[in-house]
Specification:
Layout (H helix, E strand, L loop, with lengths): L12 H15 L6 H19 L16 H7 L2 H16 L8 H23 L3 H28 L8 H14 L6 H13 L17 H25 L3 H25 L1 H26 L11 H4 L1 E4 L1 H4 L8 H6 L8 H7 L1 H6 L3 E4 L3 H9 L3 H7 L11 H10 L6 H8 L4
Parallel strand pairs: 1-2
Helix pairs in contact: 1-2, 2-15, 5-6, 6-11, 9-10, 9-11, 10-11, 11-17, 18-19
Pfam families: FA_desaturase
Organism: Aspergillus tanneri
Protein name: Fatty acid desaturase domain-containing protein
Length: about 425
């Protein structure tokens, strides 16, 4: 499969519209007027907006991550659609905070009817087969769950205000089951990463590492894995935020103590499969993902969100993980709702082009990381959707450009580009 030619039919409706728009503009560059480009983009933006508008006949709430609503309805018997699906959607729209987010209630029901009972049964009666299958199930869930919680921590919840008590409570139950420690995602991601924005004071910054070297990634991962529990509180202390320092440290240590007590006094076998393996796995996944998200950093302007993060149009990131592929859009506006990213991307497409932003298709963050370690820049170049000055560049030129953006920044580079450090 040639990633530069293949269009995945499993892309979301929004991704298909965005990709079609990008490819048309690239193919038609110079052959149509600026006014025609603007009109064409406006038409696509209106289609995208209608999908998110509850008052529009084209409104398309997300019910399941694997299927768009129309495809789901076409696959069901008419009586199931009428008596089960539509009543459920009507109910769910009155429960979730944003009406497009029916899928979040779907997944809460999924976790509380599978993950939680399975974990309780393992502690009551452990078997190795059940333990392994439980871990496999949680491994399948974790990507979607993590990006649901990503929305939760940025928006202060995912359910309507009258369900706030449950909205604030459920993460303390489900987070450890999926590998998260209590409140750590919020303090590290919202209060730290988005403030420092992959700069030199960001504890998960990639700029000091050669981003196509496995050894550098191992050092990067090891620092996070072994040191984040004390480095993050120290960072907040240096910033003068004692409250954040205490809270993130206490919650992290409480979670470790909880797992230790279960291991020692309840049973090490169920604790291993229910809590410890998901924790270890998620920490690896978070760092592999962040490495891919911030692997390409512009050598001239690394402080720009357009030039230090990327956009992906792919199934894994956007269908199953709440448009996580629109990472540049997310950094530009961290509280932007996940369904609004494609619209915002098209609206700001000229700025993306002018800033030499990178857009890829048919590849996710994990595979970007893998391809970097393989130094397969030609494959990555094939995945690039060219915009602006990138249009017309040869495959070798694109590969060379991408390789330049993975180079380690020296401390002198950092001082010149970022100014005073902590």
């Amino acid at each position: 499969m040639d990633p530069s030619e293949y269009i995945d039919v499993n892309l979301t409706q929004a991704d298909l519209l965005v990709l079609k728009e990008l490819l048309q503009e690239s193919d038609q560059r110079g052959s149509i007027s600026r006014e025609q480009v603007v009109a064409q983009r406006s038409t696509t933006s209106k289609k995208l907006a209608a999908l998110n508008d509850p008052s529009s006949p084209d409104f398309d709430p997300t019910v399941f991550v694997s299927l768009d609503l129309k495809d789901l309805q076409n696959s069901l018997p008419s009586w199931v659609d009428k008596w089960v699906l539509k009543p459920y959607i009507k109910l769910a729209r009155n429960v979730v905070r944003i009406e497009t987010d029916v899928v979040m209630l779907t997944h809460l029901l999924l976790y509380f009817t599978t993950s939680l009972p399975s974990a309780l049964i393992l502690f009551h009666h452990f078997t190795w087969v059940h333990g392994f299958l439980h871990w496999v199930m949680q491994s399948y869930y974790v990507g979607t769950y993590t990006l649901m919680m990503h929305q939760h921590i940025h928006m202060g919840g995912i359910l309507k205000r009258r369900f706030q008590w449950f909205d604030q409570l459920f993460p303390y139950i489900t987070d450890p089951l999926l590998g998260h420690t209590w409140n750590s995602y919020y303090y590290h991601h919202v209060k730290h990463h988005h403030v420092e924005a992959n700069g030199p004071n960001d504890l998960s910054s990639t700029i000091r590492y050669q981003r196509d070297e496995l050894l550098d990634f191992f050092c990067y991962f090891s620092r996070f894995f072994f040191c984040i529990w004390w480095e993050l509180p120290l960072h907040f202390l240096r910033k003068g935020n004692i409250r954040f320092a205490l809270k993130c440290c206490i919650w992290e240590l409480l979670n470790y103590a909880f797992v230790f007590l279960l291991w020692k006094h309840v049973g090490w076998k169920p604790t291993l499969f229910v809590f410890l393996l998901p924790l270890l796995q998620l920490r690896v996944g978070l760092m592999v993902g962040n490495w891919g998200q911030h692997a390409f950093v512009d050598e001239n302007d690394p402080n720009s969100d357009f030039r230090s993060s990327i956009t992906l149009i792919d199934v894994a990131s956007n269908r199953f993980c709440y448009n996580d592929g629109y990472h540049t859009s997310h950094h530009l506006h961290p509280r932007r709702h996940w369904r609004d990213h494609p619209i915002a991307f098209l609206r700001d497409k000229d700025r993306y082009s002018a800033e030499h932003a990178l857009v890829f298709r048919n590849i996710d963050y994990i595979m970007i990381t893998v391809m970097l370690f393989r130094k397969d820049y030609k494959y990555l170049a094939k995945c690039l959707v060219p915009m602006g000055e990138q249009i017309g560049m040869s495959l070798d030129e694109i590969a060379c450009m991408l390789q330049k953006k993975t180079r380690r920044f020296s401390e002198d580079d950092i001082r010149r580009k970022f100014g005073k450090l902590e």
